[in-house]
Specification:
Number of strands: 12
Radius of gyration: 22 Å
Largest sheet: 8 strands, mixed
Helix content: 25-40%
Structural class: alpha/beta
Length: 308
């Protein structure tokens, strides 16, 4: 009888093990990066609603680095392509979930570079930071990674909350150009933090920029539909005017010398100008559309210009 019981126990354990194996094999794996748009490998155009078979971190030719962490401990990730001395830096989602489409256009660019490393001139390095405000993005989409457009909640209050980091600070009011503890967004007062660079997300960008001294910076925001030059009481740098015109002409967005819709304090692009780094803010037309064709044209024009 003892041998029979032992045999029965062994059979049950083997059956459970097989069941667990089959379950885990059939269960979908967790997706940790934005996957609502994957470029067509022939044209570079996004295919809405499709999911890629790999994430940017799986591309062995990409040098992926964590440049800092958010208040909640989420990584702020930079993807580097190429090895040239001229570095172009692209930054998305400073306003997190409120401007989630800026994360999407940045990830579309990551996918494009992953598929076409030959697009980068030999004298250049391209760095993309798709999500500067991961906590703000997580407020809206429930993940700091890729998401389907239909997963974004319709609640305006939730999306507005996603504009700020976990300290309820507007990170685009936390940089050291005309910084104020209370800034404005449209006509709404917003927190600029307790001091310039009081927030870890802003410090991560500051420290990266000062360590790498990029040749030029493109910041994606939404929504106004235009390319805006930066300045911080030092006039518009000649190079900033040049790349504003280049990106605007190629993309079809209108070009502006400055953002004058309301007063800006602590703006990241204007702080870059104070650091004598050419920087432009590209504002998508809405809070939903990626406008990949327009932005790809602008990006390619900058790559040609700096690849000379």
């Amino acid at each position: 009888m003892k041998k029979i019981i032992i045999a029965l126990v062994v059979i049950v354990l083997v059956g459970v093990g097989i069941g667990i194996y089959l379950f885990t094999r059939s269960s979908p794996s967790t997706v940790n990066v934005l996957e609502n748009q994957t470029p067509n490998t022939n044209t570079g155009q996004p295919q809405n609603g499709t999911k890629s078979s790999s994430t940017p971190s799986e591309n062995t030719s990409t040098n992926e680095t964590v440049i800092g962490k958010s208040i909640q401990g989420n990584d702020i990730v930079a993807y580097h392509y190429g090895s040239g001395k001229k570095e172009l830096l692209f930054i998305g989602a400073i306003h997190g979930g409120y401007e989630w489409n800026t994360a999407l256009v940045a990830y579309d660019f990551v996918d494009y570079l992953k598929a076409r490393p030959e697009a980068i001139p030999q004298n250049m390095t391209v760095t993309v930071i798709p999500v500067m405000n991961p906590d703000g993005l997580k407020k809206v989409v429930g993940t700091t990674g890729r998401f389907m457009t239909s997963d974004v909640p319709a609640s305006q209050a939730v999306q507005i909350s996603g504009r700020f980091n976990s300290n309820n600070v507007d990170l685009n009011r936390n940089f050291d150009c005309d910084w104020q503890a209370t800034g404005v967004w449209q006509s709404t007062p917003v927190s600029g933090g307790s001091a310039a660079f009081s927030e870890p997300e802003s410090r991560a960008i500051r420290d990266y920029v000062r360590a790498h001294n990029p040749t030029a910076v493109v910041v994606w925001n939404s929504a106004a539909g235009g390319v805006f030059s930066s300045s911080c009481h030092n006039g518009i740098l000649a190079e900033t005017k040049k790349i504003t015109s280049i990106y605007a002409t190629a993309s079809g967005y209108p070009a502006y010398d400055s953002f004058d819709f309301y007063k800006l304090t602590g703006d990241m692009a204007n702080w870059l100008a104070a650091e004598n780094i050419p920087a432009i803010s590209v504002l998508l037309t809405t809070h939903k559309d990626v406008e990949w064709n327009k932005n790809l044209a602008g990006i390619q024009a900058l790559l040609r210009y700096y690849g000379k």
